[in-house]
Amino acid sequence: MSDILLDIKNLNIVYSTTDGVVRALNDANLQIRRGEALGLVGETGAGKSILIDSINAILGNRTSR
Prior knowledge:
alpha+beta
């Protein structure tokens, strides 16, 4: 069995708005192995919440907000 619990490669999140296209997340890569912990740190607007909400949506979970 693999030790990899989550493996994300080149995740892009794009929203269409009335003002045009917004690229909210560009080429995110993340790998979490069994027994590891993850902390997300970054400036406001860096895409931390978008990343977590996207992971939850992919896994079929309710969004964090």
